[in-house]
Specification:
Length: about 250
């Protein structure tokens, strides 16, 4: 499409596998994540599926380091230290009261990037998500789909090696959803590891290389996406795919 290329850090094989060992999380005494053990590699796009209340968002926040587990441990490439080269985009991203360009540049400023470089990288990030023509527009007046693409640009500009996406197209119309999916695919092609949650089976089919299916805080299936959609191995996943478990 003639858009400028953003320089992404080459995929750091030393970060992976991302391993969860007997990982648990409780809230007010209620178990949300229940002794999850899981190993995720750095190559495939990982989509976490499950009904409302399954624990998808909590599991992702534990991986990212926003929450501390109640039990178990998380390691990256065999080490407990959480890597800095990661970013997360939420279902409802917070927009600063400034322009789209400055929203992206501010994240780079916090990361210690110099002024000239951060403006250049911010502009390139906006171009990559198709928002260069809205660079001067206040971020908070953008449409929901535009704000989500701006949030992706803000994360992408940081050159993450791992990008967590929590329901990135929830409440967006089909056109905006496809635009966001195109950006996600571009980021993955650029070398970033994608780990995302979604309730949308069609989206999971389009974007996932592998599926982690959660049910009541436990991993029921972890399998290549093609196999999952062809023949789920668990009764819970089969029911979910038939719409017999709630999607939200």
């Amino acid at each position: 499409m003639g858009r400028p290329t953003l320089r992404l850090g080459t995929q750091a094989s030393g970060l992976f596998p991302l391993e969860l060992r007997e990982l648990s999380f409780e809230s007010h005494g209620t178990p949300i994540i229940d002794r999850v053990s899981l190993a995720i590699d750095g190559e495939r796009r990982t989509v976490i599926l499950g009904a409302n209340g399954a624990g998808k968002s909590v599991l992702m926040r534990l991986m990212h380091g926003l929450l501390e587990p109640s039990g178990g441990r998380i390691t990256w490439g065999g080490r407990p230290q959480r890597p800095r080269a990661q970013a997360m985009v939420f279902q409802r991203p917070v927009m600063l009261r400034t322009s789209a360009l400055k929203n992206v540049a501010y994240g780079l400023k916090l990361a210690g990037v110099g002024r000239d470089e951060r403006l250049s990288r911010a502009g390139a990030a906006l171009a990559r998500v198709g928002l260069q023509h809205l660079a001067a527009r206040p971020a908070r007046v953008l449409s929901g789909g535009e704000q989500q693409r701006l949030a992706l640009a803000r994360a992408w500009a940081l050159e993450p090696k791992v990008l967590f996406l929590d329901e990135p197209t929830a409440n967006l119309d089909p056109t905006a959803t496809r635009e966001v999916e195109d950006v996600i695919a571009d980021i993955a092609l650029g070398g970033a590891k994608i780990i995302m949650t979604t309730h949308n089976l069609g989206q999971a089919r389009r974007l996932a290389d592998e599926i982690v299916f959660l049910h009541r805080g436990r991993v029921v299936e972890h399998t290549p996406a093609e196999e999952f959609f062809r023949q789920p191995r668990s009764a819970e996943a089969a029911a979910f795919m038939k719409g017999e478990l709630p999607w939200f």
